Amino acid sequence: MNNTCLSxxxxxxxxxxxxxxxxxxxxxxxxxxVSQRPLCSGCVNGTLIFSWDCVYECPANSSxxxxxxxxxxCSELEGCLSCSGYRCLQCNSLYVLGSNYSCSYNLGASxxxxxxxxxxxxxxxxxxxxVVILLAFLLKHNYPKMFAPLFIYAVGGVLE
Length: 160
Known about the structure:
elongated, two-stranded antiparallel sheet, 2 domains, 160 residues
């Protein structure tokens, strides 16, 4: 833009590979460079964001939700829960959404704990496990001479 240095491009412009400000596509109010092309982050009135562009109507297999056309199936995008075409909007708990709108593995402890918290555990199994642990603890510490199966002593030893 007029050969002047700017810290950031003005609204409705994006910085290209050569770090020069280029105008966003006509239907975009704001955009940025992602994967070698402008990505619309805002659209003019009456249009919705789908994949990388602003569209007047949502394509087949997608529906309008807020300012996006949300795809009904995101199985093509690894780790993606919600998407707009090839643009992921929300990732599964073991993934993190990148600046290029794709999901990548996030194997941090909090991600693993979050994923494990969504694993359904049958309630009777949980109760039976707690009873075995409680019995093992009581038998090991209150009645050491009393006979108990060896696996209960092993579980009791883990609790110490």
